[in-house]
Amino acid sequence: MKVERMGNRMLLGAVVIAAFAGVAGLAAAEDMSWKHEGTAPEGKVTVGFRAGMALNTQEVVDNSDTGVGPAINFLGTYGVNKWINVGAMLTWQRFSIDIQQPKADLASVNTITLLPAYVEFRPGHFGKIQPYLSTGIGVNINSVSEADAIKRTGTRFSAGSTFAWRTAGGIDFPVTQHIVLNTEFAVNRNRGTIETKQNGQVTSKDPFDASSMNILFGAKFVF
Q1: Alpha-carbon distance 161 to 170, whole Å?
Q2: How many CB atoms lie within 10 A of CB 102?
């Protein structure tokens, strides 16, 4: 519903503000003037692990609501030069879908997003605060688990795989030469068609939009 989506957006905004305030607090003692010096670790490998929340702000299918779900992210990059990291990324997220009228559980959607083509641009830093922008393309592998009440009717849903395009902005804060704290806000495209089957027979094919926003927190390790 609109009220629930507004609440989700307010929660998202509060989390983003808290994350950036926390990083700013860590860096309060640093020289915060902007330095146009690339921060990619040239010639080195970076691996990262982040976790957080996944949020859909649109209806995945007509007459539905979605909740905030978990997200887990793995990252591997190589520093091509001091401005650019390239690599790959894997993200898992899950969220539930409810029918609005009448109110009832419908299903949960699990999505694994694989981005074999990923690039990160790192233009400079404010003290130890290192902002960056990133983008990547790949595939979303979607699976749908129907609610028990839906299963008992013989209804099954199938979403299949879709094209993934992810854009993000984040902040790194080096703790040591090899350990970096990280927070990131990302948007991932996930649009396709969902099939509805009744007792094994396809009864309808409808558009679905499981595009999502992620708020992630975690750490990176530079080798």
Answers
A1: 27
A2: 5
109 token code pair: 């959607």
Between the alpha carbon of residue 134 and those of residues 122, 123, 127, 138, 181, the distances in Å are 9, 11, 21, 14, 17
Residue 165 token pair: 């395009």
pLDDT tens profile 142-151: 999 888 888 8
Distance of CA 183 to the CA centre of its chain: 12
How many residues are listed for the chain in this entry? 223
Smallest CA-to-CA distance from 15 within 184, 142, 211 is with: 184
10 Å Cβ neighbour count for 4?
14
Q: What is the Rg, in whole angstroms, of the alpha carbon atoms belonging to the chain?
A: 20
Whose CA is closest to 71, among 45, 89, 86, 47?
Answer: 89
Identify which of 53, 56, 61 has the alpha carbon closest to the alpha carbon of residue 159. 61
* 97-152 per-position pLDDT tens digit: 887 777 778 888 999 999 999 999 999 999 999 999 999 999 999 999 888 888 88
Q: Which residues pair with 72 in a beta bridge?
A: 51, 92
Which one-letter amino acid corresponds to residue 6? Answer: M
Tokens for 78, please give them.
């190589």
Six-digit token string for 137: 């393309």
Cis peptide before 102 (omega within 30 of 0): yes
